[in-house]
Each structure stands twice: as structure tokens, then as C-alpha cells.
Recover the amino acids of this structure.
């Protein structure tokens, strides 16, 4: 059996190549697999499960088709789609999982994260994250009309792009000491995450033992996926076409 991990697809109506690549991935690569984990930023923005954008329903339908064929589908919140809720998950035949989540990956304890909380040097973002993850803030936002929420999402996306363009590269990457701390706290030697858009495999030494951090890439020019089975795991990518 095979388990797949993807992250940071940033699905949006303005990015049809990513959407088409995802549908192709489900039809050709995910068929017959044991599980599919989507580790955050599946959508470029999510303003609530009541959003009637055609893309949302279509994506749920494609995921439901995979789930109905026996593949377990898991969704983790990212920094762009933290309002994604149970209504969408149920429509997609998926289960929401918390960040972080510890799984047994074919005998290897493995920690799954989106990855944003590992970037502890980006204090400005972490303060924003604390605000938007507040139940009171989320309730206030979700009570607004769809039009107002769409406008807010566009504003936040623009602000994020502007701020990231002027931040130092190391600020937006993980803090190595935080990676070690989190892995020690959960007693793992394997960590999989996304968020940074810097796909790579990073060998580590933790408490004198070999460990590894595997980072998924975003679906911009290439599609990225981790394939895992009883023999190990592999980080793969392939070009996306419109």
C-alpha cells in the first residue's frame, strides 16, 4: 500500500493549471492508494464552507470520488484555509486533522505539520496567526456576508504577498532549533511539512540519532508529492500543464 502527502496547492479560480493538475493527480496517481494527506493551503483562500464558488464544489466532488473508492483523505489547515470546516470535509469524504498530527507511517512514527508554526522568526506573522485562529475572530468573520468576506480575503492575500516580498529569506524559513524542539517533544525522527515552498529532504541528528525533515513544495510550476510505503518514502515532482 502507498500513502501520499501533498501541500500548498493554493487552488483558486485564477490558477486553472493547479486545479487541472490536481484533478489529473487524483485520476492517475492517487487511485488505489491507502491514504492521501493534504497538509494545508489546499486553497489559496477559504472564506467559509458556505462559499458557493463553483471551484469549491468541484474540488469536493473530485475528492469524494477518490474517498468513495477506498482512499482515506485527510485535510489539515494551513495559513490560507484555516476557516475550512466540517461541511466541506464531509462533502469531500475527508477528515479534518489537527496541526500537528502524529501518525504511524508503516512502522515509522511521523509528525505531520503545515509548517508555519516552525517559522518562529516571523514574529509578525505569528501574531497575525494567533489573531485569526481565535474562535471569536472566526465567528465574527463568518457572520459577515459572502461579499464582505471575499473582499477581506482578497485584501489579506494582497497584504501577504506585499509583506513577504520585503521579508528576509531566513525569516520565512523554519527555525532549526524549533524543528528539533518539536520533534523531541513528540518523540519522532521523521517530520513532514509544507508552507515554506522549499521542497527538500533535510537529514538531522536529534539526541544522537539520525532523523529527517521532509518539505513539500507548492504547486506553482511543478506538482509535488511524497510517496510513502513500507520500504520508505520518496519526494517526487512533475511539471504542470494548463
Amino acid at each position: 500500500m502507498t500513502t501520499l502527502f501533498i501541500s500548498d496547492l493554493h487552488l483558486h479560480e485564477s490558477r486553472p493549471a493547479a486545479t487541472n493538475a490536481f484533478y489529473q493527480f487524483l485520476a492517475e496517481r492517487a487511485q488505489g492508494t491507502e491514504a492521501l494527506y493534504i497538509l494545508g493551503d489546499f486553497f489559496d483562500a477559504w472564506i467559509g464552507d458556505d462559499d458557493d464558488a463553483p471551484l469549491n464544489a468541484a474540488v469536493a466532488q473530485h475528492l469524494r470520488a477518490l474517498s468513495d473508492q477506498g482512499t482515506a483523505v485527510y485535510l489539515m489547515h494551513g495559513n490560507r484555509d484555516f476557516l475550512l470546516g466540517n461541511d466541506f470535509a464531509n462533502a469531500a469524504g475527508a477528515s479534518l486533522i489537527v496541526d500537528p498530527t502524529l501518525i504511524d507511517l508503516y512502522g515509522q512514527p511521523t509528525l505531520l505539520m503545515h509548517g508555519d508554526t516552525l517559522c518562529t522568526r516571523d514574529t509578525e506573522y505569528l501574531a497575525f496567526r494567533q489573531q485569526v485562529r481565535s474562535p471569536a475572530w472566526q465567528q465574527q468573520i463568518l457572520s459577515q456576508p459572502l461579499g464582505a468576506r471575499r473582499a477581506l480575503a482578497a485584501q489579506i492575500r494582497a497584504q501577504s504577498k506585499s509583506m513577504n516580498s520585503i521579508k528576509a529569506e531566513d525569516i520565512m524559513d523554519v527555525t532549526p532549533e524549533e524543528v528539533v524542539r518539536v520533534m523531541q517533544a513528540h518523540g519522532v525522527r521523521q517530520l513532514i511539512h509544507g508552507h515554506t515552498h522549499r521542497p527538500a529532504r533535510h537529514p538531522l541528528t536529534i539526541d544522537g540519532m539520525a532523523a529527517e525533515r521532509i518539505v513539500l513544495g507548492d504547486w506553482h510550476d511543478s506538482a509535488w508529492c511524497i510517496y510513502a510505503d513500507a520500504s520508505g518514502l520518496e519526494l517526487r515532482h512533475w511539471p504542470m500543464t494548463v
Q: What stands out?
A: The two ends are 30 Å apart (CA to CA). The chain has one domain: 3-239. Residues 3-239 form a domain with the Purple Acid Phosphatase; chain A, domain 2 fold (CATH 3.60.21.10). The CA atoms of residues 159 and 165 lie 10 Å apart.
